[in-house]
Amino acid sequence: MLATKIHATLSPYPLRPGVRFAVAAACAALLVASSATARAAVLNVGNIQTFSTGSTAGNPAGTWTLDDKSWTYLSQSGFVMSGTGGPENIQIIDSVITNSHSFLLGSLGNLAGPSTFTLGYRVNVDAPSPFFLNTVELDVNHLVNNVNVYKDVFSTLSLFTTSSGTFGLGDLATLHSVNGTPVGPLSLAGGPTEVWVRDTIVLDANGSLTGVTDTFTQAVPEIDASSLAGAFPLMVGGLALLERRRRRGGEQAASTGC
After folding, report:
1. Is 109 exposed, middle or buried (0-12, 13-18, 19+ CB in 10 A)?
2. How far apart are CA 85 and CA 87, in angstroms?
């Protein structure tokens, strides 16, 4: 409908089926881009204690949903969980434009070494979303050198659990940032729709940092070439049928003088 309206304002001549299809495809792309812009969003979670006890509407405690992704608290060590918790600040950012979803753990300037801090969580692609997790990357904002951050991504809860207390053992991916060096993106084999993640921060007596960002990009399953080859002639045939009906209607109108 949109393609027809655009053409009506630009030209008095009817579009050929192939041209009409191209215009429709271009309009659809514009609509998708506009929708993506509108869907970019930020979810402000709060500190780790809030991450573990709060939730978005309809979810159990510790699960936060933004767009088609859910983020669930699993475990932590080294952070303040008593009282109102620590000053850290978690944000989840959904950027449909870049097909990325980021987990930001900020306000970490109070962490002091020598010590090790960990945060574990699960990421789910919620049904009926067609996407799967494609790549993962790690970025660290550090203040003083001697900051090591490890990100381990696991394919099962069992592997996540049995690796507790260690780092560098992610079966899907392990990323290691030294003094803020960005790492990745690394591919996630098998296109998972659910992963278990542990971030480990290792500081010596001098090292300090302000934040850690985990970013996942997503993709959709590739369209089977044989299926596409079979569907394309049907689509073209349908457009041709519509064109013949349009011409027949015009001829009938001409013969009746309408």
Report:
1. middle
2. 7
167-200 pLDDT, tens digit each? 999 999 999 999 999 999 999 999 999 999 999 9
CA dihedral 201, 204, 208, 210 (to 10 degrees): 10
Is residue 250 over pLDDT 80? Answer: no
Whether residues 86 and 174 fall in one domain: yes
pLDDT-based confidence at residue 255 (cuts at 50, 70, 90): low
pTM for this prediction: 0.73
User: Under a CB-based contact definition with an 8 Å cutoff, are residues 119 and 76 in contact?
Assistant: yes
Q: What are the angstrom distances between the C-alpha of 172 and each of 14, 77, 182, 194, 215?
A: 54, 22, 18, 11, 15
Shared domain check, 158 and 34: no
Strands (E), the chain: 41-46, 63-66, 69-77, 89-95, 100-106, 115-125, 132-144, 147-154, 173-178, 183-187, 194-203, 208-219
5 and 32 both lie in a single domain: yes
Residues spanned by the domain of 2: 1-39
Tokens 């608290």: give the residue.
Answer: 73
Q: Could you tell me if 75 and 62 are in contact, meaning their C-beta atoms sit under 8 angstroms apart?
A: no
Which pLDDT band, with edges at 50, 70 and 90, does 35 fall under? Answer: very low
DSSP code for 88: -
Radius of gyration for the alpha carbons in the chain, expressed in angstroms and rounded: 26
